[in-house]
Design brief:
The complex is a heterodimer of chains A (about 100) and B (about 180). Chain A is of the alpha+beta class. Chain A has four helices and three strands. Helix content of chain B is about 80%, strand content about 0%. The chains are: A alpha+beta (about 100), B mainly alpha (about 180).
Chain lengths: ~100, ~180
Amino acid sequence: MAELDEHVVAPARLKLMTTLTAVSEAEFATVREALGVSDSVLSKHLGALEQVGYVRRHKGVHRGRRTTWISLTPRGRKALNAHVTALQALIDRIDWHRPR
Amino acid sequence: MESKPTRAEASAALLDAEVARARLADHIVTPSRFFASMSVAIAVQIATTAAGLGADSPWLMAGGLAVFAAVAGVQLARFRRVNGVWLGGFASRVVLGTATATSVSYAVALAAAIWAAYGDRWWLVALWSALGGAAYALSGRRWMQSYRGDPAAHARGESLAWLALMTAAAISGLAMLVLNA
């Protein structure tokens, strides 16, 4: 049975990684707007997820400005799938024991 | 480490994550006149390939391929600029036409246009080319709808290595056509 991933448990990280599954890669500001968070919050979570190899960042250009492009790694995708499976199992298990 | 979430927290976190993903996918749009330009580029490519084979003119075929490559390159750059994202699924399925409906309609239109060119029925070449271009664009529109319905399942396309191999094959084919002219 899949386990909750300690690196993805924070809802903001789950949201970030899930959002990244919609694209191959996204520019920093685009992700920030989709998540509705500040630059510093996004940078903090990206740093933590990058450290465990779940996301990848590289410098690039967007609309003539230097910026950062972000993508989910295969390892991050696998970890996210396992975490979501564990969350769904958690929801289902509690539902099963709930009095009717 | 954070504690194990409750059922309500787990549900809310999953829902919130899915809403954020849907928000990003909903904001992804094709650049203006994208489908019209792709439709014309494909029509030109089909017509020049058919006419080039019919008239034994490799330069004509190379010209059509070059037009398609230029339009595809510009449109992909515009897509990335407009949306701030790179979508492998869009690049391979919509622009390079690897979606089943796109590749089948393209193959049928190209075969019919070549058949018409060998019979010197040039109006049919034009008709099949236009139909091929229109079908290509329609398949692309359909893919965009499917993508919005399930972004995670459609976001990724072929690997960069595969696309590089295909590009190298196309460039080699183009070079051979021109060198044999």
